[in-house]
Amino acid sequence: MKSSIHPACGTIVLLTDEYVDYRKGLVDSVAERLVEYGYGTLCIAGQQLGIASVCNSIYSLANRLEIKGVICLSGTLGQRLKDDELREFLASFPVPMVSLGLQVEGFDSVMVNDATGMTKLMQHLLSHRDCRRLAFIRGFAGDPYSLHRENIFRTMLKQHGHVVDEELMIEGNFDAFDTYRAVSALLRLRPDVDTFVAANDIMALSAARAVMVAGFVIPEDIAITGFDDTQDATRNSPAISTVRQPFDELVRVSVSQLLDRIADSDQDVPTQSVKGVSHQWVDSEFIPRASTQSKVIRAVRLQLSDQASISAWLHSAMTGLPTPETLDLEKLCTALWETMDTGSLAVSECIEGMLERGSGYHNNHWWNNVCDRIETLTIALSAQESSAQASMRILFALAKARERIWALSVEREYQVRRQQGLRAAMQLRMSSCSDQAGLLETMSWWMQALEPARLFLVRYCNAGTQPDTRATLVHSYLGGLVSSSESAEFPISQLLPDEHLSELARRTFVLNPIYAGNQQFGYLLIDPTGIEHLDLNSAANSIGNAMRNHFNIGKLEYQTERLTAANQRLQKLAHFDSLTNLPNRGHFQSELDKLCMKNTPLALMFMDLDGFKFVNDSAGHDAGDQLLQQVAQRLRDSVAKMSDGQGRLARLGGDEFTLILIGHENIDRVIEMAEQLLLELARPYLIDSLTHQISVSIGCALFPGHADSSRQLIKNADVAMYYAKTHGKNSVACFPLPSAPPNITLLHSRAS
């Protein structure tokens, strides 16, 4: 049964591999826009599909919830899958679906058109800078985005009459260190390279460092370009030319498309498979900066004739980058022109006022782009002698803005490092946790230090490779208060127990599976509000390792208990008769040997049933077994009454029993006890509604009076029992016998 978490309009599920970096930005932007429309959002982060991760099965949890739709970040989640595999995955969700980042046939898809920005970038390099020896830095092998950008790079080279030099196609793997090594090696081999085009900004920035270390100047000797327009690209000196992906527009189109489908679904309009799918592209934008600035262009004075030209120049750098609500780009253009035209302090006052209203770190990227663009204007302006004062005032305003941006960046870096340090400390503590108490104590410490808005740790009732159907809440953090009281079991289709269901209707939650190895133990549900950096997957894995330790220790304890019980059963089988639960021949022999070695006085009775074979043959083996069990019980009861706890019964096998009477040396008392056993065993037996009558022959011998070893004692008692058996049965005989029977020699041989 599916459960609804009942926000105002319903719940939208977002699927991504991890909640980090630009994926976090996309998820947060989608969630923020959906909240405006009255929807709650649940982001499920279960690692990339196609890498055989146990976490992938967590995505199936979405189908146990009552949700309105799904937005899948297919560009990160499914890039390792074949087209048909990704289609099959998306088809497993029977609700309106939008694929964000990759085009998937049969499903609404919203993608960034890399070609527009990448084509303009190549035109800029080949036409304005006249670059001739261009190197391309690839991402991961097989990455669809890197391959697409490389194809445009190759096509544009050919269109401009250049031959693609395969020696200049190098591997960066979207990694700063790999890129640095590859660029450094290429520059030693080919110092004539004049341009590096990287498939993303991370590799472009690393290439810039390698170029400068090698003694080259950017952009005079070598031009550098990236892709993605990250904050670091604008902070670099010189700022890196890049291609901006308009994520805000991407989010707007994706949400709009999904909500249209949900509206159709609510009105029973045919689904997208019937109505037709929509594949929408959002154009990327090339953002030229100092790292590719043309020598010719830098030598030409900009024509700054009026406010309109200033506005156009500034807006061209901000395409695809939305202006924060508290800021006003047009007002800044007006102030900038006033300072340029009259030398006033208008731009300083405007920037200072805007910084007070909108200087949070989340606006830093916007400010970096604005400052970089204004600085370009100022450099051109400084070449005009009449504008020197205006240029100085603009530069002073930029310096104040960048000082504020730097302070915010330092504060964020501190928070990031603090959160990373807390996570590392938590992981270290978790590694030593072997029980749930230690795990919960560490969780409480981490939460009080991290101070998330809301957090819930849910544990499955049964660990496994798939999410269990039931779970318990073992830890929560709400309103600054920690609770480690374990809840009652609840179906995971609720995500949380009844008392916390209302929390799911507020804002956004990110769900990350708790796992270790090939086992899932539960999930972490966290409200990411106010947390700038959180490697949720690493934290979840650390908690999973601690849960696995607890699980394995519990499993070992359970297995130890089972092994102990099994050993006890084996011990019993080795020393006790399974039919009567009396000690067996081996146990009897061992105990008698020990007593005789200690010279403990005792009496030994050998008992052989009379008439048992007749009952066993005539009434059947089952009746014979029941008869032996009743005999054993009568012997127990009788010995318990007359031996003061010093009697040791045993069944040797068949219908033979023995009794060791410790401390008994009086033969008359032994005979008296044996006669009591004769009377007790001679009473009728009721088996399956039939009455049976048997008797017993008993032989007795004393130690050390009649034997000097256990072996001799057994022989003597056996001889006495045989004497009773051959002299009328249902009788007692004691060693030494009154007269040796004719076959005494044979008897001794049998006893041996």
Automatic annotation (TrEMBL):
Pfam families: GGDEF (PF00990), Peripla_BP_3 (PF13377). Keywords: DNA-binding, Hydrolase, Transcription, Transcription regulation. GO terms for molecular function: cyclic-guanylate-specific phosphodiesterase activity; DNA binding. It is an enzyme of class 3 (hydrolase). Residues 600-737 form the GGDEF domain. Its EC number is 3.1.4.52. PANTHER family: DIGUANYLATE CYCLASE DGCT-RELATED, GGDEF DOMAIN-CONTAINING PROTEIN. This is Cyclic di-GMP phosphodiesterase Gmr. It comes from Granulosicoccus antarcticus IMCC3135. The lineage of its organism: Bacteria, Pseudomonadati, Pseudomonadota, Gammaproteobacteria, Chromatiales.
